[in-house]
Amino acid sequence: MRRILNNAISLMVVVIVLFLVIPLPAPVLDVLIVVNISLSIMILMITMNISEALEFSIFPSLLLITTLFRLGLNVSSTRLILSEQGQAGVVIQSFGQLITQGNIVIGVLIFLIIVLVQFIVITKGAERVSEVAARFTLDAMPGKQMAIDADLSSGIIDEKEARMRRYKIQKEADFYGAMDGATKIVKGDAVMSLIITVINFVAGLIIGIVQGGGDLATVLNVYSIATIGDGLVSQLPALMISTATGMIVTRSVSDGSLNKDVIGQFKAQPRAILSTGVVLILLGLVPGAPTIPLILVGAGLSAGGYVGTQRMSQAAAQPELPPEESAAAPLPEAQAPSEADFYKDINNVYSLLSVEPIEMEFGYSLIPLVDESSGGKLISRIVIFRRQYAQDMGFVIPSIRLHDGAALGTNQYVIRIRGEEVASGEILVDYYLALEPANPAGEIDGIETVEPAYGIPSRWILPENKEMAEIYGYTVISPLTVMLTHLSETIKKHAYELLNRTETVQLVENLKKTEPDLVADAIPNVVTYANLEKILRSLLKEGVPIKDLSAILEAIIDAGSTTRDIDLITEQVRASLSRTITRKFCENGQLRVVTLDAELEAKILSSLTKNEHGVYLALSPEIMQQVIAQLGDLRKKFNELSQTPILLTSQVIRIYVSRMITQFYPDVYVLSFNEITSDVQIQAIGNIRLQAQEQQRA
Fold first, then answer.
1. Environment class of residue 568 by beta-carbon count within 10 Å: exposed (0-12), middle (13-18) or buried (19+)?
2. Which residues contact 496 (CB under 8 A, 6 or more apart)?
3. Residues near 306 by Cβ (< 8 Å), separated by ≥ 6?
4. β-strand 412-417 against 420-426: which pairing, if any?
5. CA 569 to CA 574: how far, in whole Å?
6. Most exposed of 113, 318, 337, 365 (fewest Cβ within 10 Å)?
7. Using 50, 70 and 90 to split pLDDT, how confident is the model at 635?
8. How far is CA 653 from CA 141, 421, 596, 634, 672, in A?
9. Comparing C-alpha atoms, which of 305, 125, 53, 251 is closest to residue 259?
10. What percent of the chain has pLDDT over 90?
C-alpha cells in the first residue's frame, strides 16, 4: 500500500493519458471536471501566496500534468457530445446554459471573448514574461556568483550559506528555463481547445442533422449549448493556470505574499489614494457626469487616504525624551581637564606615539553605517569577517579602530595600516552600487564609478532602479557591503604586516597547549621567534594559510638540519603545506597555470647571485621585460576564465621569480611543482619563453 502511495502521482499521469482512449461515463466526467476546476483554483491561490518562485518549484511539471488532464477531459467530453446527441453530463450542460441564457448568439460571442482573452492576453503575456525572466536570470548568474564570493571572502557569510545561495541560484536558473518551455505547452493547449470546440460544433451539427434526423433549430440549440459548456469548463481552468503562470514568474522581487504586498504598498501611499478620491469627487460635480457613483467611490477613497495620512504623520512625529539634568549640566569637578593641562604631564605625551595596527576613518555621512545605536552593522560584520579569516588563514586580525575624520569629505573613508593610508573610497549612502556585467541587457541611469576593492566599472543607482538593474544583469550591492568588502580585501593584502612578535608568540603559546614537545624542539633550538615571524609573514604575504602551525614547525625542524637560510626553509615549509596550497588554488581537480620554458628557467637559475646579504636574482632588464610582457598577455586569459592567475615554476627559483613578478602584478601567484599534490590535473594555458635574439645572445 505504501508503495502505491509513493507512486500515486506517476499512476495518476498514466490514468490521465488513458483518458484519451478509454470512454468515461457522464457522472465520472462531471466529477473529474469539478476536480480540474478545483485544482486550477488551488494552483492560482498558491502562486499568489508565495514570496518567491522556488517555493513552488514543481510548477513547470504541474503545468504539464494539468494541461494533459484538461486535454484528456476534452477528448472524453467530445466523445460523449458526438455519441450521445450532445448529452455530456450535468456540469457541461449547466455551464452551457449559464453562458447562453437562452440566446445562443450572445453565448457564442461571450465564449469567444473569454477564449480570446485567454489566448491573446493571458497566455501570450505569460509566455513573454517567462522568456524574459529565463534570459535575465541566466545573464545575472555570473554577477550573483561574484556577489556570493565577495560576501564569503569578507566574512559576511560562511561556506555553508554560500553553498546554499549558489544552489539556490542554480535552482532559479533551472526553474525559469523550465518555465520558458512550459509556457509553450500552455499556448498549445489554448490552440487545441479552440480546435476541439470547432470540432464539437461542426461535427455535432452534421451528426444531429444527418444521423439524428432532427430539425436545424433543435440540433443547433442542443449542440451549441454542449459545445459552449464544454469549451467553458476547459477554458476556465486554462485561464486560471495561465494567470498562475504569469503570476509565479513575477514573484522574484516580492517580500511576501501578493495580498500582503498589494495591501502594504497601497497603504504606504495614502496621499495618492486621497488625491484620487478628490479627483473623482470633482468629476462627479461636472454636469452630465454619473454623479452618484463618482462621489460614492471618491468619498470612500478620500476617507481612506485621509486616515492613512494621519497615521503616517503620527508615526513620524515621535516625541524626543528630555535629557537628564545631570547630563545637561555636569558638575565642575566632573569636567575633563583642558588639553594644555593634560599634556603638561610628559607621560601623557607618550600616548601620542602609539600606532594603531588597523585604522578606519569615516566622513560624516558614513557614521550611521558604523554607529550601532543608529542601526549600523559594520562592527558586527567585521566580527564575522575576523572569525572567518581566522578559520581560513590561522591568523587573528587585531582590533580595528573606527572613528570619524574631520578632514575627510562627507562620503569618504580611509583605511590605514600602522598609521599610513593604504586605501580609500567614497560611498553614497542613499544609493546602491551596481556592478556592470560584461554584456548588460540594458542601460541603467546612475553615477559612474569604480568598485574600490576589485576595480570593476560600476554605477551608483537610486533604490528605485535596483530591481531594473538586476533584471539587466547588474550585480547590486549595498553601501555597507561595498565598504566592508574593500576593508576585508585591504586587510588580506596587508595581513603579513599585521603579524608582529607578540602575535607570533601568542600563536606558539596556543600550540604549546596541545604539542609542548614539538614547540620545545623547535624554539629556540632550530628557529628563533624572529625567524619564525619572517617565515609566517612570507607565507601570509603570498596567501598561504598558517593555520597548521604544527606542520610548519615540523617542516622547519626538518629543513633546519641542512640549512639556516630562511628563504630555503620557507620553501620547504610551503612544500609541506602542499595540500593546503592545492585546496586554496585548485578548482574541481584542475589547476590552470602559466609555465616557464626550460631554457628560461635555466637562464633564471644561472642569474642567481649570492652576497653577504643572501641570494638575489640578477636578471638582465631585457629578459625581465620579456617575462613581464608575456605574463601580462597571458594574464588576460585568466581574467576571461574568472580564475586566479598562477605561474608554475621549479622550487629552486620560485621565491625569486615571485619577488620579481609581485613588483608588476601583485595578483599573480607563483607556485612550484612541489606545492601541488599529485592528484591534481595541471592544465597549462600558456608558456613564457625567451625570444630568438636572447637565445642567440645567451
1. middle
2. 537, 538, 540, 541
3. 270, 274
4. antiparallel
5. 9
6. 318
7. confident
8. 40, 33, 11, 20, 9
9. 251
10. 7
